[in-house]
Design the sequence.
């Protein structure tokens, strides 16, 4: 029972780790390049959650110095993740652009079908 | 002048960054190249001034935007990264004249300016990772350099370059994300992203934090190892080096993996430092085992390659093994050997890839079977190849020997004589793959398809000859390379006490 409560208390981390593993698994297990990128995005997104969850304090506000507020959430992880999101979008865009070019050059976006065409 | 000199650490990054944007706006190949040349030649001047200041006056701290560390982003130059900055910017400056004709031929008139834009962005990223004292900022620069690297590779003529770039993108992003996870753990533990601050807080961390520290270390090591292509995380490298435009391969092989190794050294020695020793993690054993595996397996695969670029790519993997071996040995001589090999390998491998770039420029191929007798037609090019090749083997009198000498001394200091034996045996394997090329190029009758070939124009020949000459010079006079590397090693080990 105690273990269950412990688990329920941190369910958000369990979700994060599930997304992390699921994303990584898709990257490895799928040969379709667009699906690989989807997996990669899920993997990256889970890391955003990993940063944001500890930063949020229930009932906390933005760090405004005012006697009315005493509990603050940490704004720094939010800023970091804003940057990481931009990097993630850039990576995804470049990845998709490459997939388009690969489709034009090979007529397929399946890794398993490209390998035999040029011997890897 | 006062104003410029106090902002040198920022200029090291800002100049190539703005240069990259301008190169894209110029649109035409020749002006973009002129700009690239100017930027690349300013970089080593700045690095040299910074390194000189660090060697005489200790670490430089630069608060970006005037926000004092540890709150703001700090650019911090000490002997370790001053040394790496110098390496990257010098290599960039030496090889850049080669780019003009090679890139015009292989990338095509219309895309030249974009190529130079991406190169300058990549340079920005690599210098940024090296100079920054902020762990998250290092991630951003890592991705700046990686994203531009993917584009540089994809600009190769062969359609397989696209697939190689895509595979590198997947592996590189996984590596970077692992790095971010590791940094995230460290931030949760210490509440700081500043590397110096982090190190101080980790050293004072209570024992119940040990588990999270080990997790952070594991994520960081795996993530950075992906970026530096440590065996067996290297699958992206051979394809990427083989199909990228020749000049991009030269630049990447000489700099990109070196910066990742720097980052690993920074985390292992400067940040985890003292904390690393008594957590009972077998990280040294793992590094030793993997680097020995890389030295042997990658060298043996290299012997069986017919595409010479791919052969040298596998050789790079083996050489990365030597650098990691130095970190694994971890005493003064071993670490000096690993660090000096960063420099020595950078110039030797750049020379070898430049020679292949010249071959491709003249005969349009780098396949072993098609270069019979090329040595007599392109004597200077292939002569430089032989000199740099001897360096890779580790012949006495070349720079490669110096690295291996220090590694061997380091191993003997530890009493690991078997490691010395393995070093020698793995060098003998490199005799095989370098020897195949020398035999084909010099001791075969001249084939018809290379009968018209001659040495490339001076702008391409000169960088090649300079690097080949440096291979010999730094094999004899080691004050600049091993001298500074020994100081760096001492500084790193000092952090462990």
Sequence:
């Amino acid at each position: 029972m105690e273990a269950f409560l412990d688990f329920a208390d941190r369910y958000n981390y369990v979700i994060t780790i599930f997304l992390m593993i699921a994303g990584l698994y898709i990257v490895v297990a799928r040969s379709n390049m667009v699906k690989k990128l989807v997996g990669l995005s899920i993997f990256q997104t889970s890391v955003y959650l990993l940063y944001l969850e500890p930063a949020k304090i229930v009932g906390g506000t933005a760090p405004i110095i005012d006697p009315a507020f005493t509990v603050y959430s940490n704004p720094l992880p939010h800023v970091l993740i804003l940057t990481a999101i931009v990097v993630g979008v850039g990576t995804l865009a470049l990845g998709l652009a490459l997939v388009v070019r690969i489709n034009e050059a090979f007529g397929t976006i399946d890794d398993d079908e490209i390998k035999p065409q040029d011997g890897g | 002048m006062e104003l410029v000199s106090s902002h040198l650490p920022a200029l090291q990054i800002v100049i190539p960054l703005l240069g990259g944007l301008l190169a894209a706006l110029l649109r035409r190949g020749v002006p973009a190249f002129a700009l690239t040349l100017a930027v690349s030649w300013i970089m080593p001047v700045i690095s040299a001034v910074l390194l000189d200041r660090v060697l005489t006056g200790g670490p430089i701290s630069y608060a970006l935007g005037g926000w004092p560390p540890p709150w703001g982003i700090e650019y911090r130059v000490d002997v370790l990264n001053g040394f790496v900055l110098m390496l990257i910017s010098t290599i960039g400056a030496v090889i850049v004249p080669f780019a003009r004709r090679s890139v015009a031929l292989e990338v095509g008139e219309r895309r030249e300016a974009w190529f130079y834009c991406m190169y300058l962005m990549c340079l920005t990223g690599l210098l940024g990772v090296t100079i920054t004292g902020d762990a998250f900022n290092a991630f951003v620069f890592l991705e700046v350099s990686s994203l531009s690297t993917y584009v540089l590779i994809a600009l190769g003529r062969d359609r397989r370059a696209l697939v190689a770039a895509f595979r590198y993108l997947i592996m590189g992003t996984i590596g970077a994300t692992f790095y971010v996870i590791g940094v995230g753990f460290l931030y949760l533990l210490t509440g700081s992203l500043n590397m110096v601050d982090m190190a101080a807080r980790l050293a004072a961390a209570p024992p119940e934090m040990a588990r999270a520290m080990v997790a952070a270390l594991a994520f960081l090591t795996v993530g950075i190892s992906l970026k530096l292509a440590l065996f067996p995380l290297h699958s992206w490298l051979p394809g990427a080096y083989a199909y990228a435009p020749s000049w991009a391969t030269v630049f990447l092989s000489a700099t990109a993996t070196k910066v990742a190794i720097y980052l690993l050294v920074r985390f292992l020695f400067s940040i985890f430092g003292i904390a690393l020793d008594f957590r009972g993690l077998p990280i040294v054993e793992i590094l030793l085992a993997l680097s020995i595996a890389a030295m042997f397996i990658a060298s043996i695969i290299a012997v069986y390659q017919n595409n010479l670029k791919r052969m040298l790519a596998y050789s790079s993997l083996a050489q990365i093994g030597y650098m990691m071996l130095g970190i694994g040995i971890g005493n003064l001589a071993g670490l000096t050997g690993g660090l000096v090999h960063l420099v020595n390998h950078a110039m030797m491998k750049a020379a070898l890839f430049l020679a292949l770039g010249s071959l491709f420029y003249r005969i349009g191929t780098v396949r072993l079977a098609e270069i019979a007798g090329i040595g007599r037609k392109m004597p200077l090019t292939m002569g430089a190849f032989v000199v740099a090749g001897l360096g890779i083997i580790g012949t006495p009198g070349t720079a490669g020997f110096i690295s291996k000498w220090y590694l061997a001394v380091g191993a003997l200091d530890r009493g690991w004589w078997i490691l010395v034996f393995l070093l020698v045996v793995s060098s003998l394997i490199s005799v095989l793959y370098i020897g195949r090329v020398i035999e084909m190029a010099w001791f075969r009758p001249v084939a018809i398809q290379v009968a018209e070939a001659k040495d490339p124009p001076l702008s391409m020949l000169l960088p090649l000859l300079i690097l080949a000459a440096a291979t010999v010079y730094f094999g004899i006079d080691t004050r600049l390379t091993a001298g500074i590397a020994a100081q760096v090693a001492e500084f790193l080990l000092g952090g462990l006490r």
Chain A has one domain: 2-62+73-118.
